Amino acid sequence: MKKIIFILVFFSAGVHADRAGVSFLKISPLLPLENLGCFNNGISGFWHNPALLGGKKEAAVAYNAWLDGVKLNYLAVGLPSAAGNFGFSLTYLDSGKIPETTSSAKDGTGNYFSSLAFRARAGYSKKLGYFRFGISFSDINEEIAGKKASGGCLSAGIFRRGKNLEFSFFLRNFGWMTEMDEKSSSLPAMAGFGAARIFKSGKLGFIVSATSGENLSVSVGGGVTAFKKGGKMLEFLVGYRTGFEDAGGFAGFSAAARVKVDGLSIRLSAHYFADLGSPLRISIGFAF
Description:
- The chain is mostly beta strands.
- It has a single domain, classed as Porin (Beta Barrel), CATH 2.40.160.
- 5% of the residues lie in helices and 58% in strands.
- It is built from two helices and 15 strands.
- The protein has helices spanning 2-11, 34-37, and strands spanning 58-65, 71-81, 84-99, 112-128, 131-144, 147-161, 165-178, 184-186, 190-199, 202-211, 216-229, 232-241, 252-261, 264-271, 280-287.
- The protein has a 14-stranded antiparallel beta barrel with strand order 1-2-3-4-5-6-7-9-10-11-12-13-14-15.
- A hairpin with a 2-residue loop joins strand 5 and strand 6 (147-161).
- The protein starts with a helix and ends with a strand.
């Protein structure tokens, strides 16, 4: 039953009739806490803000284990050039086999259907003066029980890092989706801004964001560098986020740990999702 509820939330027409479903667009595959992602320079912050694309070659993969075989996976590559920084990513949601139920067969008919969704994204960032500007375009597709929907969206952002402060502003998921009944509706667009204070051994910050048709969300938290020597580093992150109105992000705590050895970094993170459990995110980053 939990899995069916989970899928209905992710692939329904949405809580509000004038907006598409695709709630997976609101879930970061790398870092569950908004403010932590919005201040991660490089490919790990690309999902949150395209302006965070940095000036080094890097790649990241993420695996998210949800309940009953539901998986949210991510692959991204960042490529710098003399003209600016380019980024490419693929977010893929696989809900596995879902039992078919009817009013007369509430425990299932013995038949199953599948549901899939993915977003292919290309982005660009460039530093102009004190600020770095970024923009990205996404192609979005979803399918459930053989019925398909497709669409696209634009995201943009600004990032500024000073000596002891960072500032981030972003606009995400501004676009439309052709629904499975061939009607067009807007995506869960989001706008947000925030700031972070940089300390010698860590960072503390906040992000205030608003999603179309939903309440304001606030994400606060920070990270502490427990060990750093040469190319080796151990970092711990923790924070709290107020929730969306659906499975995009129930209010709760997040925690993460990251180990970095030269160009390789491994991060484990988890977020409290109430009755839907606490999914574990595993991400690996490479700088080359």
